[in-house]
Amino acid sequence: MESNRLVTLSLGTRTLPLPVYFPSISSVKTALRPTEYLRLLSLLTNLNSQFLISAFDLATAENPEASEKLLCSAGNSGAIILMDSGNYESFWKDAKATWTQEAFHDVLRTFSCDFTFAFDEQEPPANAEEHTALIVSRLREDQNASGSRTVIPIIHGTAEQLP
Length: 163
Description:
Blueprint: E1 8-11, E2 14-17, E3 24-25, H1 34-43, E4 50-54, H2 55-59, H3 64-76, E5 80-84, H4 87-92, H5 101-110, E6 115-117, H6 128-146, E7 150-152
Parallel strand pairs: 3-4, 4-5, 5-6, 6-7
Antiparallel strand pairs: 1-2
Helix pairs in contact: 1-3, 5-6
């Protein structure tokens, strides 16, 4: 039986085999600091050549220069780095009020990654047209801040709200 299932996913200049697993680096519900996980995953690129890292954790890193050096090292070793918006961490760290799209953009301009999730709206408008306009507007702003990197939108909604 022939399958039409995709076997690879192309994002920008990078191609990933499917299915793909991204170990996640986060400061929430973990035993080590994000920098320690980053150091470990950058050394293990031969075993797993991709990982996700939180923009919020990069923004609050104790030593941002060391984090950027580790990201560059991982990238130079062939790792594919996906940056997350950091909204999950800001929620659990009680920093939603201060973690803004502008702060996310500062991280995009400062730290290396291959592609990034967009800064998602956690509580979108109920009106579908307003919701769509907000997603498009934010996506454009994120794309401007990320340069040539691919930005992947995250869309929140109920099954009834989404087509």
